Amino acid sequence: MAPPTWPRRRAELQITTMWRYPVKSMLGEQVDEVHVAPEGLARDRALAVVDSATGMVATAKHPRLWRDLLTYSARSDGDHVRITSPSGWTLDAPARDVDARLSKALGRVVRICSERPDGASVERPAPEDVLAEGVDARVPAATVRIGQGSPGTTFVDYAPVHLITTATVEEVGTEHLRYRPNLVLRTPSGTPAYVENDWVGRELYVGDGQAGPVLRVTLPTPRCAVPTLEHGALPRAVHAVRTLIASNRVDVPGFGAVPCAGCYVEVVRPGVSRVGDEVTLR
């Protein structure tokens, strides 16, 4: 079968940065080139910390319990994932004492998991409640099943790929990594903030040849409390979500009227993405 013809349109978008997060809710790693499959970027959210008592997937969306995960980092090393702790140790994720070390530091019995079980869920307080009551407060937390918009079994929140534009990040006035995107797209000068809202249903053609992926925008990305939290050396930034609550609350199917930044995408055609690739919106 002949490959699809690339649309002949002027590309005004460009990939400036790519990230993957080998362990859910830990800091990730920048990549210059990566294969994008139907289930997402290679080795993105391949592992997760699971609470042994509840069976819930641990995520900093529930800051009172799990915000310290954002002080850990994870990176791919060949076929292995290596975790580095804020106390200084670095170990392969499946090493014998990693679970015990994490359990002691996080104050709950946890284990590293590499396979997402059916019905895997997280606890997600509304960001408004966390902002109003504080990260240590006991606030109501909805139980949300993850990966509902993904064909894979990784620990993505919803869809296989998440992206955000420079227009949106610059409007909010914070670091893009607080939103934990896979792709950051540079937009032309004058592009309105939250332009991703208008891309739902449209396709993004990455690169100018046959090797690049084709992505389809499915939803604006609902935001939780995570962008407001400390990320490694970055301090708290409540405006990273407070601004969205005031200026970009969107009625997202399945989520309700929620603050959003960026968008979720599905992979129509797999391929290789590179930093610097032009992206054509069709």
From TrEMBL:
Residues 137-282 form the MOSC domain. PROSITE patterns: MOSC. GO terms for molecular function: catalytic activity; molybdenum ion binding; pyridoxal phosphate binding. This is MOSC domain protein beta barrel domain protein. It comes from Pseudonocardia dioxanivorans (strain ATCC 55486 / DSM 44775 / JCM 13855 / CB1190).
